[in-house]
Design a protein that fits this description.
Distance between the termini: 42 Å
Strand order of the largest sheet: 11-12-13-14-15-16-17
Helix content: 40-55%
Largest sheet: 7 strands, parallel
Bound molecules: 2'-deoxyguanosine-5'-triphosphate, calcium ion
CATH class of the largest domain: Alpha Beta
Structural class: alpha/beta
Number of strands: 17
CATH architecture of the largest domain: Alpha-Beta Barrel
CATH superfamily of the largest domain: Metal-dependent hydrolases
Shape: globular
Length: 574
Amino acid sequence: MKNNEVARVFQDIADLLEFKGENVFKIRAYERAARAIEHYPRELKTMIEAGEELRDIPGVGEAIAGKAVELITTGRLSYYENLKNKLPQGITNLLAIPGIGPKTARRLSGELGISSVDELERAINEGAVAELSGLGNKTAENMLHQIQALRRKDQRIPIGEALPIAEEIIIALGAVAGVRNLTPAGSLRRFRETVGDIDLMGTADNPGQVVDAFAALPQVAQVLAHGSTKGSVIVKGGLQIDLRMVNHDAFGSLLQHFTGSQQHNIALRERGRRQGLTLSEYGITVTSTDELEKFSTEEDFYRRLGLQYIPPELREAQGELARAEQQSIPPLVELSDMKGDLHAHTRWSDGHDSVEELALAARDLGYQYIAITDHSAGRGIAHGLDMDRLWQQIAEIKALNDRLTGIRVLTGIEVDIRADGSLDFPHEVLSRLDIVIAAVHSSMHQSQDKMTRRVIGAIEDPDVDVIAHPTCRLVGGREPVAIDLEAVFRAAAKNDKIVEINAMPDRLDLKDVHAFRARELGVKLAIGTDAHSTSHMGFMRFGVGLARRAWCQPRHILNTLPLSELLVLVNRNR
Ligand code: DGT
Ligand code: CA
Ligand code: CA
């Protein structure tokens, strides 16, 4: 059972206790634990297996730690089951709808017999909910909106789809006179792997004009709200976009507020309260005098609170405030730090472009090097290279390096780790290449034990430099393979091997919390795009965003090294 599932159970418990009218401190304790567990960078399951204490997690007390252990080791929690059994069925689903508190839920269930979201929707459409005394049409309509929003939220959009849409709209709105600072906020700016919606912020001489242009965009399928400073639309394809515009001098607090995360903002507001300050999207109010201070930049906003600037990717309420207070947030890796791409495919295997086309694209991106890592001819991989074709490719790369200036093409391979743990190519071949990345592409349903040994075997092979996409998961698609990442990371650290952050937005593998843990264990990471065409090389920014969420600095990322230092490192075993 994963952390977010555990967190959901504790949040449910909090809601059920509230429904019952229980002690507020007890309710808060479950809520706090749910949040702490949801954002905790390590899987609780792994901690339990390692015999570590869950009580050490801030926000998790003795009683809740015990319940977490029961839940994770047995898959169920008797306390939770008992609680649910004593309450009307389906009540949890109603409580999950924003705006429906325990009191309303009790009436919907008691007076109308509603026990599911679908039943509630039907009752609203039939007018039964509006007829409940004290509720009325407006409340019922609002519930309907919340249900629809909730359904949309269920279908989160991968960042790889959302960011280009946001950028397209930013370009279109940039044509309005007097507009400035148009930028994504929310989870998109924090580089979460999926987003519930797109939040856009900006400033303008005349904010209303920009909102008008927004509502009139050809991409828009439905306008949900249209005011003088904000608008909300659904674009074709079903994604919601919220736009907020203010005058130029108040941009910093607006952007800060709507970048979130909500938990980060809650912690920040709490801190402000202790300083006698009230925080909002409009600025900071000195509580005693009611005087509003405006901020044109986020830097100024954080400085006013005595804090170092906090990069959006870190705003997840995971200790970033304490670090900002000590001015000790490190400089995170940036796209401009990247000196090359270490994972790319050409027409030699299943890519679309030639080695030369990739090399020139890499040079255009300002890189010093690109590694060509086509597939080996393992079973199940189309057009993998056999030894003969690999030698031909190496000769082509050698000739290319003699001809091209300003970019070095590294020879490489994405060698398949077979089901039995052996590699597709022998030492004689692998030792001739600049860089060897190894990855699993088949037999993905092996037991955790077997898979873990399979990957660690590759890590211990002296010819292997990098383990690519270690969990094989696909965002919103294939589940990760069963693998003990903690053990993989420890083996990588011990053998001085590199683990990949695969930047392809469908993969993002390692994911943020795992990259965080790998870095903590001293594992060196590499960001590879897994490009199958020159256009995919732009995926690097997604990998960098993910690495930043894992608090990575340039020194944690192999391919921030200049060519000369990189070559020393990957050739150390050859
Ligand atoms: P998402 O859209 O689910 O991927 O996540 P976010 O973080 O983008 O959340 P969203 O779009 O609901 O709100 C954007 C930010 O606005 C959020 O991170 C914090 C801030 N915010 C301000 N007021 C509220 C509020 O009343 N509720 C929520 N959820 N967020 C708020
Ligand atoms: Ca959002
Ligand atoms: Ca939003």
